[in-house]
Design brief:
Number of strands: 4
Structural class: alpha+beta
Oligomer: single chain
Radius of gyration: 16 Å
Strand order of the largest sheet: 1-2
Length: 80
């Protein structure tokens, strides 16, 4: 699938208009990395089933987070 290039935001403060903004390039790259099955051992998206203590990532129940499992490998092989 293609990467998003714009983000549509509903803005009640602006009379309910839809505001279109460009998606920052780093978010496009992050989205691509998270969807690439070849990178799943290095980086992934996770939604904790319960609150986590800080020493295991500090995630909050039901709120998604990005988990970088192998930061050195991600830097070396992907980010360069």
């Amino acid at each position: 699938s293609s990467l998003p290039t714009t983000l549509n935001v509903y803005s009640p403060a602006d009379g309910g208009d839809i505001i279109t903004n460009p998606v920052p390039e780093f978010l496009c790259h992050l989205y691509s990395m998270l969807r690439d099955p070849d990178l799943s051992e290095m980086i992934s998206w996770c939604v904790p089933a319960e609150d986590e203590p800080d020493h295991v990532g500090g995630g909050m129940k039901g709120i998604g987070k990005i988990v970088c499992h192998q930061p050195e490998a991600l830097q070396e092989k992907v980010l360069g």
